[in-house]
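Hi everyone, sorry if this is the wrong subforum. Our group has a chain we'd like a structural model of before ordering constructs, and none of us has done structure prediction before. Sequence below.
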Amino acid sequence: MRKQFLLYIVFVLCSLSSIAQVKKQRAKEEDQLQKELQHVHAERFLLKEIHVKGNKKTRESIILREMSVQAGDSVYRDELEDLLDLNRKRIFNLSIFIEVQIFTDSVGPKQISWTVQVKEQWYIIPEILFKLADRNFNVWWVEQNRDIRRANIGLTLKNRNFRGNLEHASVTAQVGYTQKFGLEYARPYVDKNQKHGFGVQMFYSQNEEWYYKTDSNKWQFYRKPGYYVTNSFQAAVNYTFRPAYASRHLLELRFRNQAVIDTFILLNPNYFNDGGTHQQLVEFLYRYDLNMVDNWNYPMTGLKAVVHSILRVGWKGFDVQNQYQLETGYFKKWGASKLYSSHIFRGRLSFPERQPYTFVYAMGTGSEYVRGYEYYVIDGSHYGILRNNLKFELFNKSLKNLPIKYIATIPIRIYPKVFTDVGYAHNKFPGNSYLNNRPLYSGGVGFDIVSIYDFKFRCEYTWNHLGEKGLFLHFSNSE
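Answer:
Right subforum, don't worry. Here is the predicted structure as tokens:
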């Protein structure tokens, strides 16, 4: 109880810290407003027109929606360069262009126009999927002996800018370790003011092998060749509200159904709460994103905060659960140098603490892990992770004028780095897992490579508190 209380205090303090950072950012914006008021006698121009070129598919209104200024606004000469850079980054964050440029022209006395020149990506992408089913590359390479049967092969037909409205539509068919079929559609704006949107999705999957419990911080798998040991169906509908550039609200209603064979319940009676072979529930989800960073795919400066809450209510194999999640990130450039730092916190509280095995996951999957512990799964109802990075921009160039229509420009950025992580996961029922309910910490060196189509590659050599060290590879994974 004491450890749970301490973890709760840490979670609250991190929440208060993120709120303080938001207030600090707002204070900076107010200071900027005061500076603008002092510019009454400074030279300013009327931004008479904004022209958009190169958008063969994307509607002009989608691009103008992202900009901080519109035609008819006044701009100051001494802030023009920063304003151009800000709006270029905002448009680029749509993640549908491979290049964005903004040019200024004089059209009269104290009057200027802007030309936004974009190069569109390839929106209709038939993706040939080859993805490892394991939690990360190292687990597949070392613990699973590079077993090719643990790979997923499939095809996803995806349109990331359907009808030029920034709509997302995709259909997925997958075979291999996980047999999967899915449909997904999202339209971010359905109103004239481009603030309200919606989305729907549906996925069905089944496996011949799946994990049924955690033993000594390792997943234990059961396989029955020629027979599906588990199947899962999920359907959801959501509503989004984006009142400003940097903030977004999401409300989602989701239905989930999962079934396993009897052997799973014999091996782990707590796999579902009632000892049955089925679990059915609905989830009510709310998420708020405040994203004031320079690059949404790979931030280098700015602040972000994500508050996420889920209420799960079940009627078969599940009772009720409340989850509260927080993610904050503070990214800073050190003066005129090419040195950058970042501090990222992720944490979650779940109540009640006794839950079916399917919902006690904490650290070890996705982006939720302490670096250096990639080989371990650490279950728990509450957890917190703090990541600290210090990076140097070693290389930032673009390969241009390539003879490929939608890949005419390929940016390449390389960042060597040093880092430290700390984490803690509380589990009231840890069993024989020894990494629960104890501080975890690690440090290391590495480098990141960032390129076109949101590509990210991380190579890290890490030491952890167990005295273990090793080289870890991550592809397109959040930091």
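For your construct planning: The chain has two domains: 2-120, 188-475. The mean pLDDT is 87.
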